[in-house]
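Re: 6-phosphogluconic acid structure - here you go.
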Amino acid sequence: MTTAVERHPSREALAGALADRIAADLKAALDTRGRATLAVPGGTTPGPFLTALGARPLNWERVAVTLTDERWVPTSSDRSNQRLVGETLFRGPAAGAEFAPLYGATAEPAQSMDAVCASLERLVLPLDVVVCGMGEDLHAASLFPGADKLRAALAPDAPPALAMRAPGAPEPRVTLTAPVLRGAAHAYLLIVGAAKREALARAEAETDEETAPVRVLLTRTKPLTVFYAD
Ligand SMILES: O=C(O)[C@H](O)[C@@H](O)[C@H](O)[C@H](O)COP(=O)(O)O
């Protein structure tokens, strides 16, 4: 398996190039359909990209945004991905976009899943664009190896989002599921550093999705591009 990798000379250049690419994808969807939908990752890598994308001029009022996954923490927590997009993507013109949160402020994520799935169906599905990060353990979104609902989330008939607990995640998670990640018209994997480049090579050599859930993206029939910088 060979995945298309775009290597950029610096992390700053990577953030700008990915923002340009996604703004172009969103603009094409807006020109064709009059609306566009996007899912973005949380974690430590995407901040500069999210800030760059949020500053791009687009008809953001016609764009709906969600997260690829969320940590079940209050939105005031510095581990909240919703907080991250509020402090990056939604600081610029993109503040006019509609947002479908994955966090629902119930004690347990499972209690919010019907409402979360309904809002995803109403606002953002199918996705025009999904951007995912990847962990060195080969997770993408919150599809972690060893997660309690991993098999259900990889199933072709999975609901759009599932609550997930995983040994590698310090708090409960909510994740978009395999059919949503596969169904997005355009997918991007945003990774930095040699350890993740090596992890990607491991994922390409794997055959088992439960061992390497990021393969949900690698085996898509629709386009996937990896954006990488050292
Ligand atoms: O909320 C999250 O943790 C994510 O969305 C997750 O899937 C992330 O993209 C990877 O864990 C990579 O995270 P880093 O960018 O922090 O390495």
